[in-house]
Amino acid sequence: MGGGVRGAASGVTAIERDLMQLLGREAIQASVEPYGRDSTEMQGFRGIPDAVVTPSNTEEIQRLVEWCKRNGVPIVPRGGGSGFAGGAVPVEGGIVCSMERFNRVVGFEPLLWRATVQAGVTTQHVHQLARENGLLYPPDPGASEQSHIGGNIACNAGGPHSFKYGVTGSWVTGIQFVTGNGDVIQSGGTLRKDVSGFDIKSLIVGSEGTLGIVTAASLRFIPAPEKTVQLVVAYDRVSAAQEGLLAIYGNGLVPSLIEFLDGSCLALAGPSLPLSLPRDTEFVLICEADGSASTADEMADDLKAVLQADAIALEVISDPQQAAALWRWRSGVSFAVISSHGGKMSEDVVVPVESLTEMIVELAEIGKRFDLPTCSWGHAGDGNLHATFLLDAKSTTDVERATIATRALFEAARRLGGSPSGEHGLGWLKREEFEHQFGEAERELHYRLKRTFDPYEIMNPGKKFRMPAPAEPEVVVA
Ligand SMILES: Cc1cc2nc3c(=O)[nH]c(=O)nc-3n(C[C@H](O)[C@H](O)[C@H](O)COP(=O)(O)OP(=O)(O)OC[C@H]3O[C@@H](n4cnc5c(N)ncnc54)[C@H](O)[C@@H]3O)c2cc1C
Prior knowledge:
Blueprint: H1 14-23, E1 51-53, H2 58-71, E2 75-78, E3 95-98, E4 105-109, E5 114-118, H3 123-131, E6 135-136, H4 149-155, H5 162-165, E7 172-179, E8 184-188, H6 200-204, E9 212-220, E10 222-223, E11 227-235, H7 238-250, E12 257-262, H8 263-269, E13 283-291, H9 293-307, E14 313-317, H10 320-331, H11 333-341, E15 344-347, H12 356-369, E16 374-379, E17 384-390, H13 396-415, H14 432-437, H15 440-453
Parallel strand pairs: 1-3, 2-3
Antiparallel strand pairs: 4-5, 5-9, 6-10, 7-8, 7-9, 11-13, 11-14, 12-13, 12-16, 15-17, 16-17
Helix pairs in contact: 12-13
The protein binds flavin-adenine dinucleotide (FAD).
């Protein structure tokens, strides 16, 4: 990208100078380096933006898009930078459009269970707003203090409670966004139902910034459950845990979450678990029952009855403080895993729920083949694993081996009827998987949709998938 050289006297690049004239000095970040990475940084993944803009209103974004169209410069939309696929990383330069100043709650009507927020409001802020008003906003991806609602929408983020409540898209009734052509589109709104047009907002959900920039969203809430009860269930065999999981389905029980940790993960994170497990524990399921006090208790009893047959231990936690300690521990699992070897490469593959343990066994086998320790944990109820290769992040050999091993992992997931990403998206790091995941007709449909929303191909190019080169014009010989 041209215009990236900083003037010795001004410390400003030509692109930044142009953008200052366009958007004002306060919309241009002087320090661009922090915007060159996201949560994939541990894999040494970084980019260098040509400029970082922090617009404060939709009209500024439109002006930015027009400028980028004219100058053929890509835009990389950025939320909180917590993504695990490199989607917000300016790998090939371009202008990072950080949504941090879009941080206002535009409207909140607690008695109608809904809010409209700007895209840069953090997930945690929305949770707090809901909680303080007796409501629940269920999507709960793990970096909620950092991630933005716009980033959650762009990735269709999930989290533990997706099992009962669904992923981000299920809670979005309207989205305002700016297309790659510079048009402002309001798709949906606060209406709970609306089928008068195509469901365009659902195309934006999960589009990873490749179709447009989300500027605001209308979200729906539900009344918060009165009570939650947690069950921690230990197994000495993976197969017994799989039977337990399927028994939950088979008995028609709907806990609000079903999480798991395998034996290798427990060996790393287990020592700080705030309860004791039998020594021969090889697998743990954590379930949560929620609802009115009586519904939650009844559901917990039913879960206990179904799960205890094959378990070697089962603990029921009703005390909120004990439950909070359990979830604090659960959110630290990823860090405990990292600290064991200095790094990890983790992929959020998803398989049909009945194949969960088969996928876990495949992961271990792939790890052996590539001489890398493995572990997994995640959202058992959705068949969604954080399938992890442990590595020394400073060792290029380890990183290279893990990169090849992840390809084998994706192949195994596909063989089991799954997909390379259940909730993080393909971003840059997994974009090659797009080719393997979809047939020609479906890929072509993606390309046509991309061109409709983003005719100049300036919106996060190269993320999720690579666009095919334009066809050579036919030479007509007279
Ligand atoms: C510790 C930890 C735990 C996590 N746990 C979970 C989990 O349980 N479930 C889960 O789903 N994810 C999880 N994540 C991943 C991450 O938090 C989510 O993918 C989140 O949705 C990313 O949001 P963000 O605002 O940080 O987006 P970013 O990382 O900034 O961007 C992610 C993608 O969204 C695009 N984007 C961002 N904002 C916009 C916008 N306004 N308009 C258009 N495109 C935009 C970017 O271009 C990029 O492609 C976890 C991450 C961490 C670090």
